[in-house]
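During the no-cost extension, the postdoctoral fellow (Dr. R.K.) reprocessed legacy sequence entries with the updated structure-token encoder. One reprocessed record is reproduced below for audit purposes.
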Amino acid sequence: MAKRSKAEIKIQNIVASASLEKDIPLIKLAEALPNTEYNPEQFPGLVMRIKEPKTSALIFSSGKIVCTGAKSMGKVKEAVGKIIQNLEKIKIKITKAPQIKVQNMVASGSIGMDLNLNSLAMELENTEYEPEQFPGLVYKLPGTRATFLLFSNGKIVCTGTRSETKLREAVDLLVKNLHKLKRK
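Re-encoded structure tokens follow.
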């Protein structure tokens, strides 16, 4: 049996959304907190920067929030908890724990093998490769939401998955597909 290369992947960013199920007075929030930016003429959401965990959140007056920057689901939940604590400072009580939904995960790592991007561009479907424009090959993994950036040194970036399980499955499938091509 062929020796499998060890793929290492690490989550770099999770984009998640949730609803606080309450209207939020954004002007009042912006006036009360120093870690916020709110320019309603330019964008309808308030930006809240959270130091720990290092994340940013877009908060809309409808109570919808989008959180970015967390590197784990635990950190996403922690960030949403901090948003709720900040809302309590302006007397807004969130009584129901918001349902958090992952919209996208970005991960990077290495699959531990060199890649010939020119031949992969020819052999794999769903690829884009223009080395004059960008040194990586874009590969949409069939049957998944995952899109990979592949580099000749074996480094990869994966985007599009919504759970750590789906991310790991996509990386395993990518490695399997690449090994099949190497055996040809």
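The two ends are 15 Å apart (CA to CA). The chain is about 25% helix and 30% strand. The remaining legacy entries will be reprocessed before the final report is submitted.
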